[in-house]
User: Fold this.
Amino acid sequence: MIRSMTAFARLETGSEQGTLSWEIRSVNHRFLEMAIRLPEELRAAEPAVRTRINARLGRGKVDCTLRYLPAVSSAAPVALDQDQLSRLLAVCAEVGDRLPLPAPLNPFEFLRWPGVVREEKLDTGPLLDAALAALDRALEDLVASREREGGAIKSLLLQRCAAMSGLVSAVRQLLPEIRTATREKLESRLAELDTPADPGRLEQELVFLLQKLDVDEEMDRLESHIEEVRQVLERTEPVGRRLDFLMQELNREANTLGSKSAAAQTTKISVELKVLIEQMREQVQNIE
Assistant:
């Protein structure tokens, strides 16, 4: 199944401990690159998140973000460490006695002091399990989205392959006519000369000229590469790099056809081939 590297998935789930929300974006990239953002409570889940993404995706730049909103009912009441607060107040009183005009104490400044407010530890085990289960579902949605777009790209590539095959067939039909026209043109120019030409030498020069203009091998390779693209599109593993290589080979043969062209028709066909190849190459850049 052909997959695109461009996709988006969002999944939100709730539990007694709060709401978990995953957002996953992926775009094209030469390799698999992950940027993972997790809340502080679930920072330890990053290795497991990377393992799951790596198991489902082959290539692409992936931005994966998890947001956690604690449930109101599960919020623990604010508790103070009385001993720590007493020690802090004593120090503040001692400092205040030494100052000529001490400023009034702000209670909120005491709450910011480390250790004054007791924080109840969150049991992250069930929350972690819920987050990873939600990630699996979000990745399923992302892969399904990539496969849907990949199917559309596959259809476009097959259409371009069919168009290229038609152009190659058109060149093959033109070749006998081009060879005949080339021979007649050479003979016509020689006939304008006052000195008669040696028939043997004429035949040698004609053979040499036709060899320089011969594009049969290029046509064979073009047909072979087009067929290879069709076969690669039916594979189940990631094929983006293979297709990118085939685009380079197709473009090379189209350029050679243009450089050897001896007629306006084949020059035009060479240009049309390169336009189709470029359209395919742009699409291939998004394939996993």
Observations:
- The chain has three domains: 7-74+125-147, 79-118, 150-284.
- Residues 79-118 form one domain.
- The two ends are 10 Å apart (CA to CA).
- DSSP finds eight helices and six strands in the chain.
